[in-house]
């Protein structure tokens, strides 16, 4: 493709996987008048620092979890260098907790390798032009899990606690600080070092926050923290996914009603 076109950064630690993704998305890039450029993480950060004209970052994490500290650090680095450039994850995993981790990490789109090839290309175009995309089936499952967690908490909570359930977003200063660090994926040890606490104290705070927000694990707690504080904290997990589900549903409905993209590529089917 001609030099000088806006770039899409294909980021992966494995050179063969980078080459495969570039081959696969080449026709899509041509239709959007973009140039696909392979990078590892360091090269991508250098290109962003040099203010290269990069319009999208596509990071392939393979079979690794998004929530792994090394991956979270990579996403933070890329977001810090790229400003508002869309950041898309390609992953071999498609379970709801991975989607929750992606939302918590402020990812713009999540493309599992098991999804339809044509829909994957349409998802990239949808994101490129201002949308976001997460598989709606996984989002729906997360919303159901959140609703079940709230129902169970309300059933077993004392009556006086249920009456004050809507006001649990009023956190102490320390709780807010711990939640902020959880939001960025820090471990208890890292939080303790940053805030001058013991790990045991951090563990107590994390437990208190999980009870207040109805979260069953750190990923869900990070998802809540990513949305800020609101008067009705019990609805934060659902609210954080509403827009993503709307965007994804819109795209998937459009895919069913419109002709599929043609991909003359051996990897498309």
Secondary-structure map:
Layout: E1 7-11, H1 15-31, E2 35-39, H2 41-49, E3 54-62, H3 69-82, E4 87-91, H4 96-104, E5 109-112, H5 117-128, H6 136-156, H7 159-163, H8 173-183, H9 188-195, H10 199-213, H11 218-225, H12 236-257
Fold and architecture overview:
- The protein is α/β, with parallel strands linked by helices and 269 residues long.
- The chain has twelve helices and five strands.
- Helix 2 runs parallel beside helix 3 (69-82), helix 4 crosses helix 6 (136-156) and helix 6 packs antiparallel against helix 12 (236-257).
β-sheet strand percentage:
5-15%
**Which percent range fits the helix content?**
55-70%
**Average pLDDT taken over every residue:** 77
Strand order of the largest sheet: 2-1-3-4-5
Largest sheet: 5 strands, parallel
Using the CA coordinates, give the radius of gyration.
Answer: 20 Å
Series of H and E elements: EHEHEHEHEHHHHHHHH
